[in-house]
Amino acid sequence: MIYLIYGNDNIKKSANIKEIADGASIVRIPIDQITNNALLTLAKQSDLFGNTPTTVIENAITGDENIFNDDILKSLKESINVFIFLEDTLTQVQIKKYKKYLEDTILCEKKEISKPKVNAFVIADMFGKRDKVGTWTTYLDLVEKGEAPEAISGMLFWKIKTLLLARSVKPYSKRELELASSQLVDIYHKAHAGDTDMKVALEQFILSTI
Length: 210
Fold this sequence. Notes:
Blueprint lengths: L1 E5 L3 H12 L4 E5 L5 H9 L9 E5 L11 H9 L4 E5 L4 H7 L3 E6 L13 H8 L3 H13 L4 H17 L8 H19 L5 H12 L1
Helix pairs in contact: 2-3, 5-6, 5-7, 6-9, 7-8, 8-9
């Protein structure tokens, strides 16, 4: 009999292999190290005490050395011994091709925990209110959740330009905003030239400007 286990969660894959083996020994064989005759021999071998190992064949379907044909697959399917095809990724087309030979198909995928998105406009609002702690903590939160420093810099630059176009620039002075605008441009160019770490430089900018 043949089982197919695939996916990117190696812990779950190992657990399923042990469950299917049900106490029998487990032999893992890369597909490039096995031959047609070896597969047929494994399919026909028997043990009076029922101690034949569970054979795990790695990359059996997607490997470059795929040697399977209908006769071999039929022999493995009809064998009382257990064979497990172990794969990382498969398409539904590939699975469908082998489905008639499989006892069961088991998908082992890691569940990605999505981090809650932070509204990038919040940092602009905090900056506009001259809230140093709020701007700084929001910046750290954005960076931790994967927001690019370039995007955050662009948001702050936009806010500064918006303030400069307004009738009142409070709680900043016009000179402070013009200087801050120039500093952001300077940080951007230095970072892209490799002269500074933009993430660090932008944090320093927030702490020293507000």
